[in-house]
Amino acid sequence: MRGCQMGMRVEAHDLVMTYGDVRAVDGISFTVEPGEFFGLLGPNGAGKTTTLEILEGLRRPDGGRALVDGSDPGRRDPKILGRMGVQLQASAFFEKLTAREQLDTFGALYDAPRTRTDELLELVGLRESGAIQADKLSGGQKQRLAIACALVNDPDLVFLDEPTAALDPQARRNLWDVLAQLNDSGRTVVLTTHYMDEAEILCDRVAIVDRGKVLAIDSPAALVRGLDVPVQISLAPGALAPEQAAALPGVDSAELEQSAVRLSTRRPTAVLTALAERDALEGLSVRGATLEDVFLDLTGREYRA
Question: Is 277 exposed, middle or buried (0-12, 13-18, 19+ CB in 10 A)?
Answer without folding.
Answer: exposed
